[in-house]
Amino acid sequence: MTGGSGLLGTFVVREFVEHGYDVVNADMKLPMKPDCRTVITDLTQLGQVYGVLEGADAVVHLAAIPVAYSHPNEVTFQNNVLSTYNVLEAASALGIKKSVIASSESSYGLVFALNRLTPLYVPIDEEHPQRPQDSYGLSKIVNEQTGLMFHRKSGMQVVALRLGNVIAPEMYKNFPSFYHDPKERDRILWSYIDTRDAATACRLAIEKESLGYVALNIAADDSSMDVLSRELMASQYPNVSDFREELSGYETLLSNKKAKMILGWKPQHTWRMYVN
Ligand SMILES: NC(=O)c1ccc[n+]([C@@H]2O[C@H](COP(=O)([O-])OP(=O)(O)OC[C@H]3O[C@@H](n4cnc5c(N)ncnc54)[C@H](O)[C@@H]3O)[C@@H](O)[C@H]2O)c1
Q1: 12 in contact with ligand 1, CB cutoff 6 A
Q2: Fewer CB atoms near the end CB (10 Å): N or C, the chain?
Q3: In this structure, are residues 89 and 148 in contact, taking their beta carbons and an 8 Å threshold?
Q4: What is the pLDDT of residues 135-171, one digit of tens each?
Q5: CB-based burial of residue 127 (10 Å sphere; 0-12 exposed, 13-18 middle, 19+ buried)?
Q6: How far, in Å, is the centroid of ligand 1 from the Cα of 66?
Q7: Helix, coil or strand: residue 81
Q8: Where are the domains of the chain?
């Protein structure tokens, strides 16, 4: 695991440990509450990456600067692109057969766009063009291409998970502060993914065989809103007329169909179970 000290990584470490895996976390910092051994590693340093990956059977690479504009643009790009290159370079040279890398819905470009973007159609699936205007979204696209290159080169299985907005269980209490207002979260098409469901997707992506290289959206089945999905679109994206699925309720607008089909994954958590 890389990034196992972070928001999502904490849950992914736990998911693998609870399923009997021997996990090592490679991160620049220690986790708040350790569930496995952490090796302090700077993944932008290839030698360190070789050292920490030696002996591993598989790698789940989550470490990244997880947002645009928190750092100077080139710092985000350099950290995310170089660490992913190094992880996959070392993994492929060490004969590791399976990997998962964290991509993002941000690669579609809406969320951090300085010039506001409209989806071409909804729900956005993996065929939708990726049009970022920021170095974070771009870093994720480059990382997907890096994954594809290493798959071609070594045959390593590389699953890129285009994660939606990651929500840990304790964050559900914030939902009533926004769930009636379509103007909130419109740039992520109101989508989200529970940390536990994202963690299960990571595990399944390692356990499945013969996936080659594939990119998969990872989102909950429903939106994060208490407004019908059609009404959300009418409010914030009235010009979108291409609806690729029937929307009659609170369906996600970031399609998770492909991940369900390929991983045999089904999100188990919706905020509606935890918020009155
Ligand atoms: N949080 C979200 O809503 C979200 C949405 C889509 C995709 N993602 C992706 O999921 C992954 C995890 O995100 P998160 O929210 O848990 O982020 P986070 O910031 O909580 O955790 C990321 C971890 O990566 C580590 N890290 C960063 N650069 C490193 C480096 N060069 N060497 C070693 N460790 C390094 C950090 O120390 C941190 O512990 C990221 O790849 C992010 O881009 C997150």
Answers
A1: no
A2: C
A3: no
A4: 999 999 999 999 999 999 999 999 999 999 999 999 9
A5: exposed
A6: 5
A7: helix
A8: 7-167+193-221+254-268
Residue 49 carries which side chain, given as an amino acid letter? V
Which residue's entry shows tokens 């492929």?
92
Q: What predicted TM-score, i.e. pTM, was given to this entire model? A: 0.98
Percent of the chain with pLDDT over 90: 100
Indicate which residue's Cα is closest to atom 5 of ligand 1: 165
Tokens of 181: 């207002």
CATH topology of domain 7-167+193-221+254-268: Rossmann fold (3.40.50)
Asked if residue 171 has its Cβ within 6 Å of ligand 1, the reply is no
Q: Is the CA virtual torsion 205, 10, 4, 195 positive or negative? A: positive
> What integer is the mean pLDDT of 180-194?
98
Question: Tokens 């609806």, residue?
Answer: 243
Does the CB atom of residue 86 touch ligand 1 within 6 A? no
Is the CB of residue 4 below 6 angstroms from any atom belonging to ligand 1? Answer: no
Query: From the CB of 48, is ligand 1 less than 6 Å away?
Result: no
83 lines ligand 1 (CB under 6 A): yes
Pocket test for ligand 1, best of 2, 28, 70, 107 (most atoms within 8 A of CB): 28
Q: Is 107 in the pocket of ligand 1 (CB under 6 A)?
A: no
Average pLDDT of the chain, as a whole number: 98
Distance in angstroms (rounded) separating the CA atoms of residues 187 and 156: 34
% pLDDT > 70, the chain: 100
Run of H or E residues at 32:
none
| CA nearest ligand 1 atom 27, residue | 64
The pLDDT, as a whole number, for residue 156 is 98
> For residue 276, is pLDDT > 90?
no
The string of pLDDT tens digits covering residues 198-249 is 999 999 999 999 999 999 999 999 999 999 999 999 999 999 999 999 999 9
